[in-house]
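Anyone have tokens for ABC transporter permease? Sequence:
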Amino acid sequence: MLSRSLVAVVAQRAALVVLLLAVWSLAARHMPAFVMPGPQKVALALVALVRSPSFFSDLGATLYRVLAGFALAAVVGAPLGVALGASPRAARFFEPLLSIVNTVSSAIWAVFAIIWFGISNATTVFVVFMTAMPLILTNVWQGALTVEAQHVELARSFHFSPAQIMRKIYLPTILPHFFAGARLAFGFGWRVSLVAETIGSSNGIGYRLRQAADLVQTDQVFAWTVTLVVLMLMLEAGILKPLEGRLFRWKRAA
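Reply: yep, here.
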């Protein structure tokens, strides 16, 4: 049986959706269809997209590029963050380089990627990687700085191996910071992937958005946007939140 709190949350979300649809429909009545198509027109465009032969291949292409870039960012950024947090000397040496990487926009990385990789999956993967990796690295680095040095020294006095110190002391402290950075990086990765796909891909959601915009097919632009939002909400509710609950179950128990 559903709890009252869950029913209340569902009711609130439904009311918000109804309100947004009402405002959208009202605004569409006072604007040309090529500027603001109404919900019904967008729904028809979405049905047509889903029935098109390229819809799921475009969806899969974008999803693959985002996940590949994000996975590379996590594999590279997390160990580097731990290394900088554990070594103040290395942190002082590399901090200016990290600041430079953070100041370069995703659009510039996309231009470099086009020059280096051309029209290929690598272009979008690279842009997602260069956007997500500094976010993960910085969060893990800050998490590593919160590890108590006395706990590390105590573990060494008990002859813990480096792997045990990492697993029993560093990992529980760093994991919340990593997860916060990873969720932020994943969201940014989705956004920049669309930018990269508009200039460096021959398929994917970003490519289709550019096509629709060039042809002034505003209903398809809205339909692809709705698709992207729904996909992000599904990933958030179906993967990220359950994973966060499982990883931090020990905190609630404590």
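The radius of gyration is 22 Å.
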